[in-house]
Amino acid sequence: MPQTGTQAGPLVVAGADPSVPGHGEAATASIHAMHMFSGAAPAAIEAARSTARIERIARDTRIFAQGSPARRAFAVVTGSVRIVQSGADGGQIICCFAARGESFGIAALFNGERQSGDALAAQPCEIASWSQAQLLALIEASPRIAINLIGSLGQCLLESHNRVRELATQRCEQRIAHTLLRLAGQAGCGGESHRAISIPLRRRDVAETAGTTLHTASRALAAWEKCGLLATREQHLMIHDMPALTRIAHGGDN
Amino acid sequence: MPQTGTQAGPLVVAGADPSVPGHGEAATASIHAMHMFSGAAPAAIEAARSTARIERIARDTRIFAQGSPARRAFAVVTGSVRIVQSGADGGQIICCFAARGESFGIAALFNGERQSGDALAAQPCEIASWSQAQLLALIEASPRIAINLIGSLGQCLLESHNRVRELATQRCEQRIAHTLLRLAGQAGCGGESHRAISIPLRRRDVAETAGTTLHTASRALAAWEKCGLLATREQHLMIHDMPALTRIAHGGDN
DNA sequence: CGCGCCCTTGAGAGTAGTCAAGCTTTGTGG
DNA sequence: CCACAAAGCTTGACTACTCTCAAGGGCGCG
């Protein structure tokens, strides 16, 4: 566990933009707003602010690699990140997306495991990170941070269990619908029935999140697009009829 | 959040055996050995010991119910627990098993979520539990406990992601093999090539863990049993050829 | 003895994966 | 500004894995 301060070594991040010195003002302001620090002692938040390494990441750049030992805790300041796991046989899935304010790369941090997937910038990002030792110190100063992390890891786990059940028991179409609803909940903006997903999604991404093939996902989305249920514009999905999607997700039509 | 001490109300546990007063000696000794307390301050462990509610649970008894608010943290003293999630459509899966020394019911604890499944005693159990407030106090006294919980939740999450990938990309047979290997790792005893799984498993359990139907699981296990790869005796699985199973799991034969 | 639970096995059908081809859009370099 | 290449999307036809439906056997327990 090297480096303690702001002398950011190029340990994990390729493609960091050096035009950002390390502590952008806008970025540090939003550390308050992060899940993991909500309700923490002001001193701990200040410490988090001053020890954070903040980096600007270009789209599709890798933040950490599958199989590498987990040495840092990450959180999204702006943009979004997707975690992609590849199997030995070439099979790929998207484990999850991390949106603004969410942490990622925590699951393997305190148990000696290796990262279960590549973390890739789904769009241009600012990413904050802390070394394991720094995070431990922060938790020591304010255990509330650990509680928050337990809460969000738990949420991921519950969600993952839902996904497992859907994969095991539901039709492709239902799973794709669920996938969109989940993403709309996590990173959507708009009203009750119209919602736009702020993460760029190719067909392939939808497929790998829903656990199906590009072809099947494309067929379903094209069909829904045809009947006005949703629309795609430059890899951004807009849902025009949430109730109908919900009905499909619940197996309403067959 | 009611009750604070040892006046155990029948809040969650049905079928508790009243012949156990509350603090068995053997049970409290093994609190030391639990993951969640490993490395914690002795005072915190003592506090954990003195505040734990310990209950004896009969096989197939429900410890908490899917959809109920999470109010307590649980850990297995002896026996094993399975967490079963049921969908609105009747589809069921086994989210995970908790074996000796492992905690469960934590995922929904600090985020206001509800339990994602029923917790059922897979065999006669002794279960320790603490209220949310008690656990918070323990963590305050020794943040190491929170770190341990983050570690084990993280491990569950990594495992769940692996399961998702397997469900999305692999054949039934491979998934069943993976399931057995995972269980052998978690609750197995024996050597390199011969291993017995100490959790009782019906065909149905294997199916719901691997994400397939009773029938498909039965066919695969019967075939493997026929060629001496494994054996079943009274719902207990013994694997006789781990390398061969591993080969199947990796798609070795097709 | 009969009922319930668990396991096995067979036959048929359908969802979704695989293979294949062509279209649209985007970006790059001449 | 156009040509070409690369990436992404759509669609069709075929195949097969696995689910569904169905029936029957073994075992323990009331």
Structure description:
- 2 copies of one chain form a homodimer.
- With about 250 residues, chain A is of the alpha+beta class.
- Chain A folds into 2 domains: about 5-165, Jelly Rolls, CATH 2.60.120; about 170-250, Arc Repressor Mutant, subunit A (Orthogonal Bundle).
- Chain A has helices spanning about 25-30, 40-50, 130-140, 145-170, 170-185, 205-210, 215-225, 240-250, and strands spanning about 55, 60-65, 70-80, 80-85, 90-100, 105, 120, 125-130, 190, 195, 230-235, 235-240.
- Chain A has a 4-stranded antiparallel sheet. A 4-stranded antiparallel sheet of chain A has the order 2-7-4-5.
- In chain A, a hairpin with a 5-residue loop joins strand 4 and strand 5.
- In chain A, about 50% of the residues are buried.
- The interface between A and B is large, with 50 and 50 residues.
- Chain A binds a DNA duplex (30 and 30 nucleotides) through helix 7.
